[in-house]
Amino acid sequence: MKDLLKKYLDSGISRRQLMRGLSAVGVSGVAAKTLADSFAPTPAMAQAAAPGGTDGIREVKGNGGMLYMQQLKSAGVKYMFFNPSTGDAPFYDAAVDVPEIQLIKGIQEGAVVAMADGYARLSGNVGVAHIANVGLPNGMTQLVNSWKDQIPVLLTVAAFGTETAGRDYAQDYDHQEPMLQPITKWFWVAESTAGIADVTRRALKFATTPPSGPVFLSIPDDLLKAQATAQVYDKKLFSVPMRIRPDQKDTEAVAKMLIEAKNPLITVGDEVTMCQAEMEVLQLAELLGIPVAGQGGQGNWSKPFPTKHPLFIGAFVRNMRFPGPVDVHFNIGDQGAEKQMQGTTLISMRRDPTGLARAWPVNMPLVSDIKLGVADIITAVKAMATKEKLKQIADGRAGRAGEYSAGMAKLRQAMATDKDAGSGNSINMVRLGVELEKGLEKDTIYVSDCDSGRSMDPFLAWGGADKSYISTGPNILGWGVAAAMGAKLARPDRPVVSCVGDGSFMFGGPQPLWSQSRYKAPVTNIVVNNMSYNNERNRIWTFIAGQQFKTGKDMTCYNGSPDVNHAKASEAFGVEAEVVIEPGKIQDALGRAKRANIEGRPYLLDIHVDRAGVGAASEWYPPFSIADMRTRKV
Amino acid sequence: MRKLILAIAFVATTFGVAMSAQAQQGNPFPEGPGREIVAVACTQCHAPNAITQLRMNEAGWRNQIYDMVLRGAQIGPNDIDAATKYLATSFGPGVPFPNQQPVDVKLPDGAGKELVEGGCALCHGVDRVAATNRSKDQWEKIVNRMVFYGSPISGDQVTSIVTYLDQNFGVKQTAAK
Question: Which tens digit of pLDDT belongs to each residue from A335-394?
């Protein structure tokens, strides 16, 4: 057996030959598999064993722009989102000769970054954005979304040349790169042309290594123009998989606690999505009949657990009326749900060690790839109890959770039946939610940038075999339309719908539609138009209840007057559009949008909805006119 | 209707004593069936004042609860009626605000003045009415919304109130000081 293992380790025989050999010497099939697994080469070993150790390394000659593009190409980057500026020319000159990388042009820098961000969320690959140096602060606004949600984005600019930087020329300001410090994993200024490939590689490594996140690279324009020779590496040579598993003893302890718990709860968050662990989490919840909460509200950008599943009980709050006092809380990949409840043992499995136990005490912190860690717990649970015993445990718990979720579904049904209450012949959020659930395809990727939309989200089915929900945790508005463009690029064969409030649409402006129009991105864009920052006003008036509430004067949130026609704005960018005002016309409008998408064109629906809540009826805003200030009519 | 408004105002004044005592004890939620549901479910995301400073009837509170359930509040179908009734009783039209002195505002005389004092002041001071000039269309939308929230105003009275508000607090009038 020793000889067999030595041959295997020396790559003298294959895994199959090893298994056969082990069987021949009397090792059982299961034991042989375990042995083979334990001796399987790690990715690092495989990399080291590559012929000559240099497979995947190329020498490239060219200017700095070419070295940058060639390193991106070797890393498997297919798209570069950009807006042009003069100093960037070497990048785009190089792009002429690197057809493997498709340029995707945006207008404003924020939209360029949001497109890269949306692409990264849906593809799992790094989003590469290159923006005008002087417009860097514009791009930073959307980079905050990437930072908070740990989305891998490489943001680059062509900076002032090394000889001229610091002279305070019109578009120059000293040391711009530290501005990025609070919102990037890493930032750097290239110091030589030959080093550009090296720093680009490092930037990609930092962006993509979990916990992933945005990085910033500034390359002085004289270095971009200069010639040099450098090596570029394939992705496999600097990609760090971070497939970390929890300690086996910890895994077994968690399994035991979950089996023995009287009233356990699972909460889930975005790290489940990022580790593609949806199936494992579902399997664990079903195996033990544990109710699942979380993935809603601010702070989460995805919904990895199927919301129509009987075990899903809605948002997580610290004092859960259902399932009542929790004794074991297993948090899987959600920083927001990592909160201590009285009398509860909190276990938190996170792929991000910096976020783990950052704000609240955690009884059992576990750093792990979520997919591997949950799979290990499933294995441990199955090893600790018979199928019959597990079924008995699961049935008891799942029955209660199922009753609760069925009751909430019934309540939503009652709301849906009464969907036009108080709205007359106008559209409220309940009605819109019901209509979207009816009209959207089941495999739709729904890109939400709409705070008011949270009240219609429960009427739509998310996760599992249903629609995919993508949003941002911090809600930096102006993201949705551009991110939907990136999402469609990542998943061209799935329907993509952006749903943005009128506030968000005006934040980002209609300009991201330019990219949708230019590149024929068949996206349906929905503007949920209540002519207000409606939730903002509600929170200001009810949470703070200051002088605005007392006097009925909405000093800040009413967006009407002018009543912007977003459909007309859309058409100016070449995107067909219509205004929808009556509830009965939503389905027909969705049908027209769908047909346009099928034919390869984007579409926009400007859907007017009721404002809701305190002060909703008011259209008052502080009257002020600059024209009236004039003493001359000029 | 006028009698109904005055009757509600009387009950409000009487009930207000109890509310004030309640408030002085630092408990924002008065006793009553449904209190536990509201006190637990509604304070997970915001402070009690987001509720206690509002006044609505059952239809208004039900609407509000539905919205909160859609945003994550754990109020199940078996709790909805109790929570709605509790809120409409404890924080319904006419229930005064503890420890709040009404702002002394004298409305201009005219047809509809008493209806404003009776119908609007059940839930908030008339100073809110007098603070802002609005178009007739706006006043109509707001008064109708208030009727939905529980102001005991009939269809005819809506017309009278809107006319009064337009004449005295329309866009070309000056707000009362």
Answer: 999 998 999 999 999 999 999 999 999 999 999 999 999 999 999 999 999 999 999 999
- Give A458-483 as a DSSP string: GGS-BSTTSBEEE--SS--SS-HHHH
Q: DSSP label at A354?
A: T
* pLDDT per position as a tens digit, A83-95: 999 999 999 999 9
Cα distances from B150 to residues A102, A144, A365, A545, A596, in angstroms, run: 60, 43, 51, 21, 45
Using alpha carbons, list the distances in angstroms from residue A507 to A164, A286, A533, A604, B166.
35, 42, 11, 16, 35
A293 and A313 Cβ atoms separated by less than 8 Å: yes
Contacts of B127 in chain A (CB under 8 A): 550-551
Q: Which of A297, A415, A620 sits opposite B134 (nearest CB)?
A: A620
Would you call B40 and A321 a contact, using CB atoms and an 8 Å cutoff?
A: yes
Q: Domain containing B56: what range?
A: 2-90
Interface contact B138-A407, CB threshold 8 A: no
In a domain, A135, yes or no: yes
pLDDT of residue A38: 60
Helix (H) or strand (E) holding B16: helix B2-24
* Interface predicted TM-score (ipTM): 0.82
Which two structure tokens, joined as six digits, stand for B104?
């002394």
Residues A178 and A189: beta-carbon distance below 8 Å = no
Which among A296, A421, A553 is the nearest to B72, CB-wise? A296
Cβ-Cβ contacts under 8 Å, A545 against chain B: 49-50, 53
Helix-helix angle A29-39:A15-24, to 10 degrees: 140
Indicate the burial class of A244 (C-beta count within 10 angstroms; 0-12, 13-18, 19 or more): middle
Q: Are A452 and A429 in contact (CB under 8 A)?
A: yes
Note whether B142 contacts A618, CB cutoff 8 Å: yes
In the predicted structure, residue A45 carries a pLDDT above the cut 90: no
Cα angle A147, A148, A152 (rounded to 5 degrees) comes to 40
Report the number of distinct structural domains present in chain B.
Answer: 2
Summarize pLDDT for A255-277 with one digit per residue, the tens. 999 999 999 999 999 999 999 99
Where would I find the H helices in B107-153? 113-115, 126-130, 136-149
Helix, strand, coil % in chain B, rounded to nearest 5: 60, 0, 40
Name the strand (E) or helix (H) holding A348.
strand A345-350
**Residue in B46, B77, B138 nearest the CB of A411:** B77
Q: What is the pLDDT of residue A402?
A: 97
How open is the CA angle A81-A85-A91, to the nearest 5 degrees? 60
Contact B76 A613 (CB under 8 A): no
B45 to chain A: closest CA residue: A317
The residues with which A529 forms a beta bridge, in sequence order, are A608
Distance of CA A357 to the CA centre of its chain: 22
Token pair recorded at residue B25: 């004890």
Residues A351 and A472 in one domain: no
Q: Are A157 and A203 spatial neighbours (Cβ–Cβ below 8 Å)?
A: no
Asked if residues A447 and A504 have their Cβ atoms less than 8 Å apart, the reply is no
Report pLDDT digits (tens) over B68-123.
Answer: 999 999 999 999 999 999 999 999 998 988 777 767 788 999 999 999 988 888 88
Determine whether the interchain pair A551/B49 forms a contact, defined as Cβ–Cβ distance below 8 Å.
no
Q: Are residues B25 and B70 in the same domain?
A: yes
Whether residues B8 and B84 share a domain: the answer is: yes
Residue contact A408–B46, C-beta within 8 A = no
Does residue B83 belong to the interface with chain A, where contact is any CB pair within 8 Å? no
Instruction: Kindly state the tokens that stand for A78.
Output: 């297919």
- Facing A543 at nearest CB: one of B47, B67, B127: B47
Domain CATH number, residue A194: 3.40.50.970
Examine residue B33 and state whether it is found in any structural domain, yes or no: yes
Of A201-205, A242-246, B124-128, the one with minimum mean pLDDT is B124-128
